[in-house]
Amino acid sequence: MDIFTTFKIAGSALKAQRIRLNTISSNLANVETTSTPEGGPYKKKSVYFETQNIPFSEHLKSNMGSEADKAVQGVRVARILEDQDPPQRIYNPTHPDAGEDGYVEMPNISVLKEMTDMMSATRSYEANTTVVKSAKRMALKALEIGR
């Protein structure tokens, strides 16, 4: 495995975690949104990852290499799904979107869970940033060998 493969893998993880963080921030921003253009309250969105397929040329190259090269794969966002659970119904007759019975349909978002997911995504992003920095330092040290 060359140094550029490490950059590709860490880069794919950075991109995936950035999308995850954007989705979490969207969920947190809309935790009180009761009406959307689609109608009804905002629906929580979740990001699902999958391993990233290697292009044919790289797959051919890895099959000609060592066994360790075959096991290397990046990550990508497979899909972003909306939560299908029913919205929370909260009694608040003074709210402008309250029904005749006084209940308001609110997004089914747990701020605590979103904050936990955000911390996990941030830690993963930091870990992959550290991988890129370490690989860069190794490449620079390798260039100094000939001096």
Spell out the key features of this protein.
about 150 residues, alpha+beta, two-stranded antiparallel ribbon, two-stranded antiparallel sheet, 4 strands, bacterial flagellum, cilium, Flg_bb/hook_C_dom
Sequence-ordered SSE layout with sheet pairings:
Blueprint: H1 3-29, E1 45-52, H2 56-63, H3 67-70, E2 74-82, E3 88-91, E4 103-106, H4 111-143
Antiparallel strand pairs: 1-2, 3-4
Give an overview of the whole structure.
The protein is α+β, with helices and mostly antiparallel strands. The protein is built from four helices and four strands; from the N terminus they run αβααβββα. The chain has helices spanning 3-29, 56-63, 67-70, 111-143; strands spanning 45-52, 74-82, 88-91, 103-106. The strands form two sheets. A two-stranded antiparallel sheet has the order 1-2. α1 runs antiparallel to α4. The chain is elongated. The chain starts with a helix and ends with a helix. The model has no long low-confidence stretch (mean pLDDT 89). Its main location: other. Keywords: Bacterial flagellum, Cell projection, Cilium, Flagellum. Residues 9-34 form the Flagellar basal body rod protein N-terminal domain.
| Category from helices, strands and their pairing | alpha+beta
Low-confidence stretches: none
Radius of gyration: 22 Å
Strand content: 15-25%
SSE pattern: HEHHEEEH
The main sheet orders its strands as 1-2
Q: Figure out the total of helices.
A: 4
Form type: elongated
Number of strand segments: 4
* Cα separation of the termini: 25 Å
Average per-residue pLDDT, rounded, comes to 89
Helical residues, percent:
40-55%
Largest sheet: 2 strands, antiparallel
